[in-house]
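Quick one: structure tokens for this chain, please?
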Amino acid sequence: MNQATLPPIKTLEARNRRLGFIFVLPALVLIGAVILYPVGYNIYLSFWKPALNPAKPDTLVGLGNYARLLSDPEFYASLGVTFAYVAITVAGSTLLGGAAALLMNRRFPGRKLARSALLLSYVSPVISSVFVWIYLFNGLYGMIDYVLVDALKILPVAPQWFDNPALSLVLVCLFDIWRVFPFALIMILSSLQAIDSSVYEAAAIDGAGPWTVFRRITLPEILPVVASVVTLRSIWNFYKFEDVYLLTKQVPLIGVYLYRTAFTVNDLGLASAISVVLFLIIMGAVVALASRNKGERV
């Protein structure tokens, strides 16, 4: 083929663009069907009071659902409990995962077996882990109460782990920290293993102690990963529902409040308004955090 018969460059670029659009079209359709349509319909539903009887029409209430939500004391109470739950669980799981990562980064006999064992809580099914904890903390035959009350005599009577709201909050926080700390462990350990060993060797030659090495070398290297872990865990725990609801009904997290509004009270319009408000809270926090990180890099 000579130069005269070659198609113009602009024609080739247009064909490539059309071909690329055809390749990504199935993904766009899937995203629209699975994400965009449910989100849009949820926003639409938040302005209505859906009728439970399919034969009756829905009632347009405008911002009425949002007004009811923002004037509901239970919403603010659930929001406060949720913020406390997120702060405790994210801090606890990150610190525990970081400590375990520092330990697993050292060489010792049986390290591979120890790493595998530490991941068991994260890979186990939620429902099975919940029932194990219910058995352990049972007031009649649970191992935890037996150790605290009968064996060690630390407590005079068995605590009401599942009936007392304060103790129930402690219980669900401990469960989440135990269950998800391997996520922080994996992320931080991968960051630790990416640090060049020559940096530690140079620090040892200069006479730096363990605390100086950690503060000057290790911590700055793992901070970006820790920030990512904290951000992801905060978003995920803000919507936490299944394991908390399975463990106890005494912890009114925002996810539990949303579930009860939608499926116990059957107020789907108010439940949609709750989810929209939660989405705005999370998006605002993410945008603020991203802007802050961008400002620090500049």
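The longest helix spans residues 9-45.
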